[in-house]
Amino acid sequence: MRGITYLLGAVVALTVVVVYKAHPSGHAEGEAAPIFGIKTPPGYRDWRLISVAHEEGKLNDLRAILGNDVAIKAYREGKLPFPDGAIIARLAWSYVPSEENNKVFGRAQSFVAGPATNVQFMVKDSIKYASTGGWGFAQFNDGKPADEALHNTCFACHVPVKTRDFVFTHYAR
Amino acid sequence: MRGITYLLGAVVALTVVVVYKAHPSGHAEGEAAPIFGIKTPPGYRDWRLISVAHEEGKLNDLRAILGNDVAIKAYREGKLPFPDGAIIARLAWSYVPSEENNKVFGRAQSFVAGPATNVQFMVKDSIKYASTGGWGFAQFNDGKPADEALHNTCFACHVPVKTRDFVFTHYAR
After folding, report:
1. How many CB atoms within 10 Å of residue A33?
2. Lesser CB count within 10 Å: N end or C end of chain A?
3. Contact at CB, B57 and A173, closer than 8 angstroms
4. What are the chain B neighbours of A68 within 8 Å (beta carbons)?
């Protein structure tokens, strides 16, 4: 009897921990982005790194691409298409020269992340988003969803990488 | 009695989970880097993102700076000096133009992470590394420690940011 009670206690405690881990920052909050109805996924800033990039031109940013557990697992296993539940987050910051670093290097060579520009998400749901390759798209500027016109441009831009399930970013090993 | 047994079960289960979390990928492996004796920390590729950067010149890389749980907590709380146990990882990859992305953008503007160049670590231990600001330094090229001459240059380069506990990278919000 004591053994069973002990076992029950352990199971309850483990369940509590697993549930906590699955929702470390609670449920999605804030306003949903247009068309795809995506809210900012909770805890995305804690997700693991897929890769980094720099865009010149109008974007002029440094970016980090992060993935939730489902996305990271698929990337590492080279699994395509991404399974439902995968979410990819693209964070971006202004591309800013670092005077501090340049002094140490003795030349102007160092560029770092300035203020955040915007955050984008791709959410895989092959049923809900069947008409856009199984992906929902969202962009948030300073926590607020971008407008509908912008969200209408997302999928078309990703079509050229259809063979990689519409995802541009390669995993950085 | 039953309550106490239940409680004990819960405590044991929680302890198991906490210990598992602290060592998700086992112990450090591989050859130790010279001078500071640092091995590649297990699971560092899973650590959370501090920031991103681009270095031109000879380095010509895109880099991601990750932190273990102790480092991330200190960064987010603005806590200086970093507490013992903090580890900061700097991953870097060759700075490579993406023809694929440029086609979509219609201009040459996209740079992505190519092959890895090297990985560096800063490990905080205020006793062990007292003579170098409380930090031990290590660089690994393709998993192999860099030579002693290189490791002799690390601390001097970090002295200009002594007021930020010898750490260059700011947390990207």
Report:
1. 25
2. N
3. no
4. none
Contacts of B5 (CB under 8 A, 6+ apart): A2, A5, A6, A9
pLDDT in tens, B52-83: 999 999 999 999 999 999 999 999 999 999 99
CB contact under 8 A, B109 and A53: no
pLDDT tens-digit map of A17-48:
444 444 444 577 799 999 999 999 999 999 99
Q: Which of A62, A101, A111 sits opposite B168 (nearest CB)?
A: A101
Q: B103 to chain A nearest CA, in Å?
A: 9
Judged by CB atoms closer than 8 Å, whether chains meet at A9 and B14 is answered as no
Chain A hits for B142, Cβ within 8 Å: none
pLDDT, residue B28, reads 77
SS3 B17: helix
How many A×B Cβ pairs under 8 Å?
151
What is the nearest CA distance from A45 to chain B, expressed in angstroms? Answer: 8
